[in-house]
Amino acid sequence: MKRIIAAMLLALIMLGFQPRATAAAPMTVIDFEGLADKQIVQDYYYSTYGVTFSGASILTAGISLSPLYPPKSGSCVAWDYPEYAVNGTVTITFSTPRTHVGGYFTTMTKLTFTAYDSGGNPVGQDLSLDRANYEGAGTGLVPNHYLHVNYAGGIAKVVIEDTGDSYVLDDLTFTGGLEFGDAPEGALAYPATGVAGAFPTCMSVTTAGWIQHDNFGAWFGPGFDFETDGNAGLCPGFAPYNSDECFEDGDAGLILPEPYTIQAGVVAPCGNATGTPLGSPCAWAQWGSDIDILIHNWMPNHEPYVQAYVNVLIDWNQDGQWQNDPGTTCYGIMTPEHVLVDFVIPPQYDGTLSALGPPSFQIGPNEGYVWARFSITERPVGSDWNGEGTFEDGETEDYLLRVYHPPPVGVGGEAYPVNKVSLLAPWIAASMAIMAGSFMALRRRKTQS
User: Fold this and answer.
1) Where in the chain is the domain with CATH 2.60.120?
2) Is 227 helix (H, G, I), strand (E, B) or coil?
3) What pLDDT, in 10s, does the model give residues 54-109?
4) CA distances (Å), origin 110, targets 100, 123, 370
């Protein structure tokens, strides 16, 4: 059934269906439309976006806005109104720290765009707009220059400064947050053995590091969610497990096998799943028939689009971490836990991973459940990766999979070991009948003679 679903998805993609349109918008844009000319912005956007402005008012094209300062979009822009913007300073504050903040500026003088964290510490600055860029300025710059800062730790405030009331801002752009993993860290990972997870998931747990992504256009499945920490923000808690995605829940990208989770200390199939095995110990897992995931790569959400990288980790030795173990072997050869290394995803790709032909990999030697991590990133991570890192783009999805060797079909209704008497009984009966027939025929011949 999962192969059929994968084929249907791929067919829809080939026909022009774009799953990326169903994903959560990776960026939020405030375009200032709908505000009145000369209106003070202040906390107009606070209830919707948690954004407060200080020192800005609105200018509208065709009314108060000079044609030398064209809007990036629509007809309204924010202006460093001198009555409110002391020394040309506009401050924008975010109730929830953002990892990317930017905007389109047109100015008469040099601008500085400085970002600060929640503690008031400067964390980045864009000084690229170092001269006038209004229409006809003759400086080689065109209106609506994009200034921005990225900071994975979270931007709580930006300050824009010049020497007076001489610039406008349009299309303020920011991200909604970060994306993390879900595998347990500091919590039970394998109920059968009592092993706790030390997977790099939670910022708030010191057992290991963590993985986090900003996102500008690369993800798994139909969508993604921004979070404040691992396990959909529940870290350090894992009640429930797999809070971000589990299976066919509007977020999860895994197509097959059907994964599991942990409920009240017991392994159980994810909701919407019955649970299916990845394969048998030491067998070779084939992409498309044993395992598959849906991928989108539209980084960085504008031209020029760039390639992405997918990495997959599976904890074959069930020790609660992703690290190659020389003692985990099949037929005397180590089975790496980093099963897919820096596999390239082309730009503007929507489809299954299997369609790109990744190499098969050998399943580990142990039966049971194993935690797996799927990550798509803007840069390669190298071999023998442990699953942690800070990335400007992408997403991570973690799943609990099963390695299982189903028992052979029994003979005559019996399971192995074979009941040899039951197996041979029909042949013995047939042989006895043949022997009896031969004996009777022999007696008749002797009697006749």
Assistant:
1) 31-175
2) strand
3) 999 999 999 999 999 999 999 999 998 776 656 789 999 998 788 889 999 999 99
4) 22, 20, 56
The per-residue pLDDT of the chain, averaged, comes to 85
Rounded to whole angstroms, how far apart are CA atoms 212 and 203? 9
Whether the Cβ atoms of residue 95 and residue 75 lie closer than 8 Å to each other: no
**Sequence-ordered list of residues with C-beta below 8 angstroms from that of 441, at least 6 positions apart, any chain:** none
Cβ atoms of 42 and 66 within 8 Å: the answer is no
At the second CATH level, the architecture of 31-175 is Sandwich (2.60)
The DSSP bridge pattern shows strands 211-213 and 389-391 to be: parallel
- Asked if 310 and 375 count as a contact pair (C-beta separation under 8 A), the reply is yes
- DSSP one-letter string for 259-322: -EEEETTEEEEPTT------B-TTPEE-BTTTBEEEEEE-TTSSSSP--EEEEEEE-TT-SSS-
Least confident of 9-23, 211-225, 311-325, 408-422: 9-23
Of 260, 258, 323, the residue nearest 293 (C-alpha): 258
pTM value > 0.70: no
Greater confidence, 28 or 111?
Answer: 111
List the end-to-end C-alpha distance of the chain, in Å, as a whole number. 71
Q: How far apart are CA 388 and CA 381, in angstroms?
A: 9
Residue 263 pLDDT > 50: yes
Count the neighbouring beta carbons within 10 Å of the beta carbon of residue 22: 12
Strands 284-285 and 260-263: unpaired
CA distance 286 to 254: 15
Q: How far is Cα 160 from Cα 126, in angstroms, rounded to an integer?
A: 10
Distance of alpha carbon 286 from alpha carbon 339, whole angstroms: 12
pLDDT of residue 405: 83
Q: Which residue has the higher pLDDT, 353 or 439?
A: 353
CB atoms within 10 A of CB 423: 12
Q: What is the DSSP string of 118-155?
A: TTS-EEEEE----S--STT--SS--S-EEEEEEEEEEE
Return the pLDDT at 26.
53
